[in-house]
Amino acid sequence: MSEQIEIPNKSFFKLNEVSSITGVKPYVLRFWETEFDTIINPANSESGQKLYEQKDIEAFLLIKKVLFEDKLPIHEAKVLLRNQTESNAPTATTNARVVRQSLTDKDINALLVAKDEVKQMLSVIDNLRTKYKI
């Protein structure tokens, strides 16, 4: 499944074209678009039809790999891909990269899931503080 897929050199693609390129059914792509909305952002044509760019197709292919080859559940894949997108930003420190290199992919995924859960708990705590004026 790790074969190299060539994406045609054009600006925008319709959903059926993306489906053909990725080998994923359109209804699955639409579902992934809602689940991974931080990395897939199609444009809308004047008629309201969604148009996908090459970066969207690359994101779909990455999601396909993470879900089908790596066999991650969707909630872990979302955290992994969100944090992978964030970590590609130039703000990552050298120390963080060194630590990350010594961890296995499984360790990193577990840490990313834990990080997301801690963020959710902190949000609940903030809401309770606001509600009870603590």
Helix content: 55-70%
Give the terminus-to-terminus CA distance. Answer: 53 Å
SS summary, helix count: 6
Radius of gyration: 18 Å
Q: How does this model look, in words?
A:
By secondary structure, the chain is mainly alpha-helical. The protein has 6 helices and 2 strands. It has a two-stranded antiparallel sheet with strand order 1-2. Strand 1 (43-44) and strand 2 (50-51) form a beta hairpin. The model is unreliable at 90-100 (pLDDT under 50).
Write a brief caption for the model.
The chain has 134 residues and is an all-alpha fold.
What is the secondary structure topology, with strand pairs?
Elements: H1 15-22, H2 26-35, E1 43-44, E2 50-51, H3 54-69, H4 74-87, H5 94-101, H6 105-132
Antiparallel strand pairs: 1-2
Which terms summarize this structure?
134 residues, 63% helix, globular
